[in-house]
């Protein structure tokens, strides 16, 4: 694939999962059947322990819960969301917002977390003005983690500067360019009886002992970038196949696997980290007005 248009955002460490359903029934059974099922259950338990999951109740010696507490946080965020345009034998260029740095506020109660971020003062004036809204909601269940995000930006600048020689040493500004991202990812914590995700993210649980877990999951995102006129500047439009395109829609779905671990030391201190790899199927659709002019499917790892 030589010509490429992509709606991108900076990769994050994302934990994802496959849907898991377990159905069980209790019946009066003969002793032989009960012994067989007990042996079978022990074998299954060994299998799950190899994966880091025992299917037992949460181990109080590993996790302490503070469900009645409301926790809050202030955090720094850097959102690298934008639109990238490429063509054969031509320099690629990106449309970027001018307020990628922000200050976030968050509240958590039991499983629910709400976060909102606001741009910091001190943005570069020569990159124009960007109006933005970034919201994130998370559900941190014992065995499942769900993250939902909504981001909207209006007002972008073109990077790098030297793509357009006609503007000299100034940035090419597009106050009409809008970009929206909505979607989420979900995580299955296989060792949820001993590993607490909430102890790291919301602090209303306490990881008493070191523990790790295998992670399975997926993600689903939709993005849209549009402008009042063509996204490719007229001065260089003859060099790019996206000439005349004023609306680009992006869709991405994927599944992945990962591992997370929390190391506890000196009783009240911990270090936590995780790593996942995700295989995505993505597609972009390019429009000129209401007319579909291009469609590009591709795989991302």
* Low-pLDDT segments: 7-29
pLDDT averaged over residues: 80
Tally of alpha and pi helices: 2
Q: What is the 3D form?
A: elongated
Straight-line N-to-C gap: 16 Å
Return Rg in Å: 24 Å
Number of DSSP strand runs: 15
Class from helix and strand fractions? mainly beta
Pfam families: DUF4421
Keywords: Signal
Protein name: DUF4421 domain-containing protein
InterPro entries: DUF4421 (IPR025535)
Gist?
The chain has 2 helices and 15 strands. It is mainly beta and 301 residues long.
Explain what you see.
It is a single chain. The protein is mostly beta strands. The chain has one domain (4-8, 59-300). Helices cover 8% and strands 53% of the residues. The chain has 2 helices and 15 strands. The strands form 2 sheets. Strands 1, 3, 4, 5, 6, 7, 8, 9, 10, 12, 13, 14 and 15 form a 13-stranded antiparallel beta sheet that branches. Strands 2-11 form a two-stranded antiparallel ribbon. A hairpin with a 2-residue loop joins β6 and β7 (112-119). Residues 7-29 have low confidence and may be disordered.
List the helices and strands and how they pair.
Layout: E1 4-9, H1 31-50, E2 63-65, E3 70-78, E4 81-87, E5 90-97, E6 101-109, E7 112-119, E8 131-140, E9 144-159, E10 173-189, H2 198-201, E11 205-207, E12 211-226, E13 247-265, E14 269-288, E15 291-300
Antiparallel strand pairs: 1-4, 2-11, 3-6, 4-5, 5-9, 6-7, 7-8, 8-9, 9-10, 10-12, 12-13, 13-14, 14-15
């Amino acid at each position: 694939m030589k010509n490429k248009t992509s709606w991108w955002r900076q990769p994050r460490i994302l934990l994802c999962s496959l849907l898991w359903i377990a159905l069980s029934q209790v019946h009066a059974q003969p002793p032989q059947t009960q012994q067989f099922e007990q042996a079978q259950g022990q074998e299954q338990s060994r299998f799950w322990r190899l994966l880091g999951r025992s299917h037992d109740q949460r181990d109080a010696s590993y996790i302490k819960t503070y469900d009645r507490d409301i926790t809050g946080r202030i955090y720094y965020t850097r959102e690298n969301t934008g639109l990238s345009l490429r063509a054969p034998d031509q320099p690629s260029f990106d449309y970027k917002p001018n307020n990628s740095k922000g200050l976030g506020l968050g509240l958590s109660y039991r499983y629910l977390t709400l976060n909102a971020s606001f741009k910091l003062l001190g943005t570069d004036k020569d990159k124009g003005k960007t109006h933005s809204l970034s919201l994130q909601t998370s559900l941190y269940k014992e065995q499942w983690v769900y993250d939902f995000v909504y981001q909207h930006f209006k007002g972008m600048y073109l990077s790098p500067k030297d793509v357009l020689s006609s503007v000299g040493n100034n940035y090419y500004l597009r106050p009409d360019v809008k970009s929206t991202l909505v979607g989420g990812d979900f995580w299955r914590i296989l060792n949820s009886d001993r590993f607490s995700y909430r102890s790291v993210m919301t602090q209303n649980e306490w990881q008493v002992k070191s523990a790790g877990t295998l992670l399975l999951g997926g993600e689903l995102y939709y993005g849209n970038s549009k402008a009042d006129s063509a996204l490719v500047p007229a001065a260089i439009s003859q060099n790019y196949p996206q000439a005349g395109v004023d609306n680009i829609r992006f869709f991405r779905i994927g599944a992945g696997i990962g591992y997370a671990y929390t190391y506890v030391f000196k009783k009240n201190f911990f270090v936590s980290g995780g790593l996942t790899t995700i295989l995505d199927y993505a597609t972009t659709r390019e429009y000129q007005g209401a007319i579909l002019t291009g469609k590009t499917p591709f795989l991302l790892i």
